[in-house]
């Protein structure tokens, strides 16, 4: 087995505002390390996989806790031995072989780790399913990844049973994380693991694995993001770039099906030899108590979780903790300021990337509101730019030669990054159409190919980078990506809706956009408030259910029949300025209700929690 490569750990200088020159030097130094650290891995150890990194940690610190979950510790050695049992059980009872794919439909649980490494030891890939999806969405996401095995948490058994006939028709092997199950067609896995040996798995079973080998897919609607060893290393090393060490303890309340939770929270911690405090679900009320109990030093966040923390009742012990750093993305400047003012001067490391992206930025200096800073060497290695974007047509502007137009300094533009051997785009699993759609050709010269990030950013005069908005067919709400096409398909399945146009609208004081739909009704039909509620509740997770529905006589389209959403987004959901019928979702009453000015005012004032 190859040993781990070595490098000098860089601990950043203070990012105090009183020392701006030192901050800039630190940004420069760490920026170089961030760019070349992954290249150093590949140069020294071309086949140093994530699994080898984990096994190296097992040898060095077998008894150290890798995961602490609900009061119980799971050591590096325990996870390793359990993964050996997983590999043998699945090889025997599911006939898994190198190159096969297994889908995880699981809640946050330590077994995620040993199931994952069990697959790695067989040279198999995993597909991570969002445990909130159901029915057709679940089947669609599963079908994208080409998996021949599904493993589900026991508490998700009912959701699996709903789609089981289709899975069995496709000869999919279905396992539940339990010792007992009376549902025909679903096999138990825990009992099979107990009967299997925990002795090491022969590397010969994964002899074909390379750094470009498919590791896992992050499954969303309508596409599945492909992650290989190279890609995972690029994200995993964020923690080491920030100066994290094996002495740190990271608190990760994010779901493991999420790229941030799985890539950074779990694998980033393993690369550093850290302990992960894992929660089944995020809890704002329990967050700081957990941090105190476990002596947490690093917390992982998305923007909304920080806002939730700031909205909890203040306590005298708010600043009594050992947290020194928070790493994540999506943090608004006002929440950033409020968080540090209330919980102490915790170093916040905001970054920008996407699971499928070939570019990323990191805010090393702690500039409030920024997601990063331009770096000459990064831009030389991985060329990127902002181009002018037509918000009405939702497409980049092009000049008379058909080339994109760079955005002037200080103005908002669409981020595009060149696809090269140093910055590849791996595409989407089983979806060549979506892969092609994500690429832009003839951007600055004929024949070049760039990746369309789908995000609008802004660079200021000091080269700091600010996220502005997301465009295209997705928006983000409560830390989750919402695919407008998925919601539209669910809505038009109602027997009284003819067509639907789904988009996101801003609510003051929140991160992201909440879902809204403009719909047309079939001739002679009326909108049913109760039926609409029951339908979206059954087929969509809570974060994707449209909060507002607007009834229109027709939906505006372009000359190429593309829906026009920009005017709908601008008009929002204010009943005083919209003549159409408006409805809002009321979960407590299990129906949609007519929008009133009183309700609208309460939402805008932040008096109602949505």
From TrEMBL:
How does it sit in the bilayer? Multi-pass membrane protein
Catalyzed reaction equations: a long-chain fatty acid + ATP + CoA = a long-chain fatty acyl-CoA + AMP + diphosphate; tetracosanoate + ATP + CoA = tetracosanoyl-CoA + AMP + diphosphate; a very long-chain fatty acid + ATP + CoA = a very long-chain fatty acyl-CoA + AMP + diphosphate
Q: Which keywords annotate this record? A: Cell membrane, Fatty acid metabolism, Ligase, Lipid metabolism, Lipid transport, Membrane, Nucleotide-binding, Transmembrane, Transmembrane helix, Transport
Pfam families xrefs: AMP-binding, AMP-binding_C
Where is it mainly found? membrane
Claim: Zinc-finger is one of the keywords in the record: no
Annotated EC = 6.2.1.3
Kindly give the SUPFAM superfamilies that the UniProt entry links to this protein: Acetyl-CoA synthetase-like
AMP-dependent synthetase/ligase domain: residues covered? 56-363
Q: InterPro entries recorded for this chain?
A: AMP-bd_C, AMP-bd_C_sf, AMP-dep_synth/lig_dom, ANL_N_sf
Main enzyme class: ligase
Extract the signal peptide range: none
A GO cellular component annotation here is: plasma membrane
- Molecular function GO terms recorded: long-chain fatty acid transmembrane transporter activity; long-chain fatty acid-CoA ligase activity; nucleotide binding
What Gene3D superfamilies has UniProt attached to this entry? Answer: 3.30.300.30, N-terminal domain of ligase-like
Q: Where in the cell is it found?
A: Cell membrane
Using the record's annotation, list all stretches that form the AMP-binding enzyme C-terminal domain. 486-562
The record's Gene Ontology biological-process terms are: long-chain fatty acid import into cell
Q: Family per UniProt?
A: Belongs to the ATP-dependent AMP-binding enzyme family.
**What's the protein called, per UniProt?**
long-chain-fatty-acid--CoA ligase
What lineage does the source organism belong to? Eukaryota, Metazoa, Chordata, Craniata, Vertebrata
